[in-house]
Specification:
The chain is of the alpha/beta class. It is about 35% helix and about 20% strand. It contains 15 helices and 17 strands. It has helices at about 5-10, 15-35, 40-45, 125-130, 135-150, 165-175, 220-235, 260-275, 285-295, 305-315, 325-335, 340-365, 385-390, 395-400, 405-410, and strands at about 55-60, 75-80, 80-85, 95-105, 110-115, 150-155, 180-185, 190, 215-220, 240, 275-280, 300, 320, 430, 445-450, 455, 460. The chain has an eight-stranded mixed β-sheet with strand order 3-2-1-4-14-15-16-17. The protein is globular.
Length: about 475
């Protein structure tokens, strides 16, 4: 080597002592320009010659759900990130102003349980049978945009036919399709003849339906571990286990436990070894307790939660995702005699128990994350869950937190979404009034921004330009 940087600088052909001092001064000035000073805002670092910024001027702003809304505020955005949050209405050079001075601005909403690539029909034929996987991807582009237009800027897809939500996720991420950020489970995993086994729809599905289509099956701990690892290899962000029967699986097994303890435990171990969280579909008390004992990260539905299973929640730190929208929707279908007798019985019993379960969860301070099971109910109507949660005992502020800060924590994304803070993704929505007072306002979102791109303005979709 030719010595230190300082030594090489000294040997440069600069005239005399003053030349060497000048080089040192220039070097010091360069370092000061590169390194941010103190708590200087990112907006100041962007500077006049940096990328154009967008400034949201909000009449009211809920930057941290659970806290009191703020008055007139400005949110400065560049390259998809929030770079400054300020009181009052500010401007910056080369900035684009979005005037929401008469609106209430808050973080983009998060739905932790959807099926973005299909929509249920009572017959199930049009939903699953004899369709090419590409059909689900194309349908998913419609459902994804519909979900985004409703103000949901992040969703967790918990099972798609042939795992096609993984492809949709990547297309959205690449900017080719308009939709929310998607975290996808690929295919749901269950026991043979369990909830994720398409053949469980035997009387409603066309003959010859493919195995390993809607979900994949496993029997025994080793096979369950392998199925988890296959989903990890396919690129899953999360693992979905169907531990119990489901309302809409046409089976005489009801809503009871369908996987044995060793199978659940092996699957959870394999998932956590891969760095993946586990969402467990579980309605019955026995299924909830088996899943929690195995260490799952969230219970989906949890209809028959009671005080004993609530204690397990507290010990494990798992989240509850009640999906009251789907449970209520299934009960409505049952009352209209649009479900088989077996399905109708399960739907009505789960609906009757679910609200009680949520009330117990609230009383025991179990973290409740927002999830709708959309796909079982129509996409774009996700906000219906807010009113159902409030009816079940959450305050409007708690319901909003379930779809922002709490949902972000469940997804492991608190560093990126859930609040309006410097450094986070510019995922924002606006409504016409204060939803902490009137939760129904979230059913009519006026403005939607995802990662700095505006998708809805003044209640109308904004044309999407694919990359």
């Amino acid at each position: 080597m030719q010595g230190s940087f300082e030594a090489r600088t000294e040997q440069a052909p600069v005239a005399g002592r003053f030349g060497r001092v000048s080089r040192r001064i220039i070097l010091l000035l360069a370092i000061l320009l590169i390194v941010p000073l103190g708590n200087q805002s990112l907006a100041a670092q962007v500077g006049d010659s940096g990328p154009q910024v967008t400034i949201i001027q909000a009449g009211h702003m809920l930057d941290r759900p659970g806290s009191e809304p703020k008055g007139p505020s400005s949110i400065v955005i560049a390259e998809g990130k929030i770079i400054e949050v300020a009181e009052g209405y500010i401007e910056r050079p080369n900035s684009k102003i979005v005037d929401l001075r008469d609106r209430f601005v808050m973080p983009g909403l998060i739905d932790t349980h959807v099926h973005i690539t299909f929509e249920f029909s009572p017959s199930l034929r049009s939903a699953f049978a004899e369709r090419n996987p590409a059909d689900f991807v194309l349908a998913g582009t419609v459902y994804a945009n519909r979900t985004l237009q409703a103000g949901f800027t992040t969703v967790r897809d918990l099972g798609s036919p042939s795992g096609v939500a993984l492809s949709l996720r990547d297309a959205i991420e690449a900017g080719r399709v308009a939709g929310p950020t998607v975290l996808a489970a690929g295919q749901m995993i269950s026991a043979t003849a369990g909830h994720a086994d398409l053949r469980g729809f035997n009387t409603l599905t066309a003959a010859g339906a493919r195995e390993n289509y809607v979900g994949v099956t496993c029997d025994g701990p080793a096979e369950c571990m392998k199925r988890v690892r296959e989903q990890a290899r396919a690129g899953a962000d999360v693992i979905k286990l169907a531990v119990t029967g489901g309302v809409l699986s046409d089976s005489k097994a009801g809503l009871s436990l369908q996987m044995v303890d060793d199978e659940v435990g092996a699957a959870v171990t394999a998932a956590h070894q891969q760095g993946l969280r586990v969402a467990a579909h579980a309605h019955s008390k026995s299924g909830i307790e088996a899943a929690l004992s195995a260490g799952v990260d969230s219970i989906e539905h949890g209809s028959f939660l009671d005080n004993a299973s609530a204690a397990l929640f507290k010990r494990s730190g798992a989240y509850l995702v009640p999906t009251l929208t789907a449970v209520t929707g299934a009960a409505e279908q049952a009352r209209m005699e649009k479900l088989s007798p077996e399905m109708a019985e399960k739907a009505l019993s789960a609906h009757q128990a679910a609200t009680t379960g949520v009330r117990i969860a609230v009383s025991k301070d179990i973290p409740i994350a927002f999830g709708t099971d959309s796909g079982i109910t129509p996409h774009g109507q996700n906000a219906r869950e807010f009113e159902l949660l409030v009816s079940a005992g959450l305050s409007p502020s708690e319901a909003i937190a379930s779809a922002t800060t709490i949902a972000a924590a469940l997804l492991g994304r608190s560093d990126r979404i859930g609040t309006i803070e410097v450094g986070k993704d510019a995922d924002l929505i606006a409504v016409d009034g204060n939803p902490t007072v009137n939760i129904g306002l979230l059913s009519n979102v006026i403005f939607v921004m995802r990662r700095g791109a505006i998708h809805r303005l003044e209640g109308r979709p904004v044309a999407f330009s694919a990359r």
